[in-house]
User: Which sequence fits this backbone?
């Protein structure tokens, strides 16, 4: 009887080659997509932070680019800092606020509709998201038109992550193993997923974010010394941008 056993290694080898080729093509495509994203650079009093914006959240992306192009973030502070959690900026009233002044209420007079993109965009360390008013006054979870935060967070153990995963399932959120791996190995704030819109990620200067989130703060989480965005500028536009 004719047997195919002797040919199995050859077929397996071909399958491995095909799979490898597919993975390389996908990896190359993903790398190209990342290279084409819009990039913003913050020159701060503690160092440079570069942020890539996500084309999956076009409303937030274009709004952020518009504000940067107008010089909106120049001279504003990181006015709210919570160690092992996040750093927040974008309040226009922070430019001239005396030390100790409560900040966080400044805005641009409009909000943005939420653009949740789970499981692709989530609150791992280094991600950039839009701040917003609480659910009691903002049940639609609309984003602030200008205030944002950069996630730091903590690494989660299996038990904590299982609780978060159960919460995701109860809310009907989709998740994948990349999320669970990142939250265990890199860190983040998974309890914010599906609550706030993630629209960017730090691609350079995570060490600067680390230094800022370690700053001493007052009872309102404002750093005791001003941490200022000296200048914000756009380094690169993605082809998808349409606000100009």
Assistant:
């Amino acid at each position: 009887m004719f047997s195919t056993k002797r040919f199995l290694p050859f077929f397996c080898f071909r399958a491995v080659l095909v799979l490898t080729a597919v993975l390389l093509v996908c990896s190359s495509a993903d790398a190209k997509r990342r290279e084409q994203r819009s990039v913003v650079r913050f020159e701060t009093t503690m160092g440079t932070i570069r942020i890539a914006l996500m084309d999956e959240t076009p409303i937030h992306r274009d709004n952020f680019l518009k504000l940067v192009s107008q010089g909106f973030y120049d001279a504003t502070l990181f006015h709210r800092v919570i160690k092992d959690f996040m750093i927040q900026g974008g309040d226009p009233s922070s430019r001239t606020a005396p030390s100790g002044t409560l900040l966080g209420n400044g805005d641009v007079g409009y909000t943005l509709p939420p653009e949740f993109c789970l499981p692709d965009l989530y609150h791992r360390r280094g991600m950039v998201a839009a701040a917003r008013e609480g659910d009691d006054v903002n049940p639609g979870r609309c984003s602030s038109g200008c205030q944002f935060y950069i996630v730091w967070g903590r690494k989660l153990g299996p038990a904590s992550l299982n609780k978060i995963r159960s919460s995701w399932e109860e809310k009907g959120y989709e998740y994948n193993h990349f999320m669970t791996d990142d939250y265990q190995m890199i860190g983040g704030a998974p309890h914010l997923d599906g609550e706030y819109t993630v629209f960017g990620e730090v691609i350079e200067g995570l060490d600067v974010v680390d230094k800022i989130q370690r700053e001493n703060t007052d009872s309102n989480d404002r750093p005791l010394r001003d941490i200022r965005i000296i200048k914000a500028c756009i380094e690169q536009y993605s082809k998808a941008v349409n606000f100009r």
